[in-house]
Amino acid sequence: MDDAFTPLREYGVIGNLETCALVNREGSIDWCCLPYVDSPSVFARILDPERGGRFAITPTGAFETDQAYLDRTNVLETTFETESGTATVTDFMPVVEADRVEEPQLRGLYRKVACTEGSVELGVAFEPRYDYARSETAVDEIEAGAVATNDRRQATLVSPVELDVTADGQREADGSTATNRGAETERETETETEAEVGNGATAHAEFDLSEGEERWFVLRYSMRAPSEPDDCQDLLETTVDYWRDWVHSCEESECLFGGPAHDLVVRSELLLKLLTYRETGGIVAAPTTSLPEDVGGVRNWDYRFTWLRDGAWVVRALTNLEHVSEAEDYIHRFLERTLEGDTAAVQPLYGVEGDTDLEEEELDHLRGYRDSRPVRVGNEAAEQQQLDVYGELAISIYQRLWSLDELPDEDWEAMWGVAEYVCDHWDDPGVGIWELRGEPRHLVHSKLMCWAAVDRAIKLAEREDCEAPLDEWRDCRTAIKEAVLEHGFDEELNSFTRAFDGSTMDATALLIPVMGFLPVDDPRIEGTIDAVMEHLMTDDGLVYRYEDDDLPGEEGAFVLCSFWLVDALTITGRTDEAWDLFENLLEYASPLGLFAEEIDPETGEFLGNFPQGFSHLGLLNSALYLYEAEYDWATVGPLGTPTLVQEERSD
């Protein structure tokens, strides 16, 4: 691997329910968009070590390093051990209760540097590059530290040490020039104008710390006066309390999630919360863009948006951990904001504030992570027809029943609209969950989720005694099921497939038992599981999502699909196999307990955007299925609500 790039598994993530930042093991913030997660980047070194920009605090000499989160929080500590001593950088973005979120000083990135043993010399390098390093960034010294501006943005670095500003060139944290780093790397045709993009000044300094001393560096989005150290420490303690009060609490010996999964369940829970946008309840798929699924290839996409599908799955996972308010926020704030009562106007994805215009653009001036180009911002998948989304919406509404005394009228109106739309359009072709960029097809998973949408609408009407055209909906449900069974199952493979009348395997077939489409003891279910294991699973238990997608290059195994196999095995009673696979998957987590979208089966390297919500909700759901299978649900007591599958099996 090119040493200029940090392996994805060596990053931690922090955030404030508005945006996130990625911090590597050397104390460098290599990715951060301000003020929101889908805003243009301020630091993008992860996509271009020379031009992207960073904010590093690192020892000036040789060191060994380790990272860890403060227990049950999203507060990250990076510890450096040098010959002369030990220092720790504590990174966080303040998160407090909602009534204090508007305080401007809370919108910042806080870095506490403390020497815990001996003495350590450290360097700081502040290299902001606004707008994905497309525009000139001015960095000027001020009494409090430095201010970074361009024609639209301004941020202040409050520094306890005097900073030296150097124009037109980056510097290492130890102060050495880095203007020509990576210059030997071959690039595609590059004009003189492109070569100048992203130039800007750097603020840097060196400072010494002795045991017991600490310094605070605060990056804020305004020119407000600097915070005193005591104020910073108060914010740290408040933020720690926020995360610990929010995350589910139990003694490991008494927790449904015991054993090796417990800490990873907690980390997944915290990560999914970190991906939520407090203002609207939207949930982004990942906080990054264009981290490649195929290193050096073109499979590079922007995931800093809210997919209705992803959001629905995350909400269900968090609801099972008793985080009901996230479901309320997502359904009654984000969905109301985006859909505005018009079910037919559903897009697969939106901006975190409900934006509908997500025009895709390629940033040719950026090198891309490990030379994977193009770098994309925006996502044209927003314009696609993805019928499976309607099933996800319906299931989310359906599951909310367990936390409500009565069904709100607006929920029933939304469910009605979903069922009516699906009955009119279920036999339309589409691109489906994987957003394949070819001709629309009749995809089995899309039909499955259309069936689920109508099925849940019928069950909701029956349970709540709602007036509805039940005969029409039942006929529609039957028609969808008959079509899937006739055209979506390949006798030779003994498996459900990707598309009607096709023979290409797709891991989404594993969701057929999860949705309750067929009884779990139906031989076609067992055949499908076995076929996925034969055709899509690696020797190490990782699962590819499909056999091909018409794009150049090859991607890695898909983490979520690997957890789907765990779910399917558990639901069908093959729990020993499920446990073996689950425990093997946990071994692939990063040292901080994080997952990317994909894993290279040959190297274990993370691929795709990171950290990935899909992967962590898969872990949560698999843990829930496995531990439910271990215990009698009634005696253990739920962390959340019974799963849909349990209800289907009891009918």
Automatic annotation (TrEMBL):
UniProt cross-references to InterPro entries, sorted A to Z: 6-hairpin_glycosidase_sf (IPR008928), 6hp_glycosidase-like_sf (IPR012341), GH15-like (IPR011613), Trehalase-like_N (IPR045582)
Record's keyword terms, sorted: Hydrolase
Keyword tRNA processing in record: no
Ranges of residues in domain GH15-like: 259-623
Every Trehalase-like N-terminal domain range: 6-173
Region (Disordered), start-end ranges: 162-201
GO molecular function: hydrolase activity, hydrolyzing O-glycosyl compounds
GO-annotated biological processes: carbohydrate metabolic process
Membership in a protein family: Belongs to the glycosyl hydrolase 15 family.
Name this protein carries in UniProt: Glycoside hydrolase family 15 protein
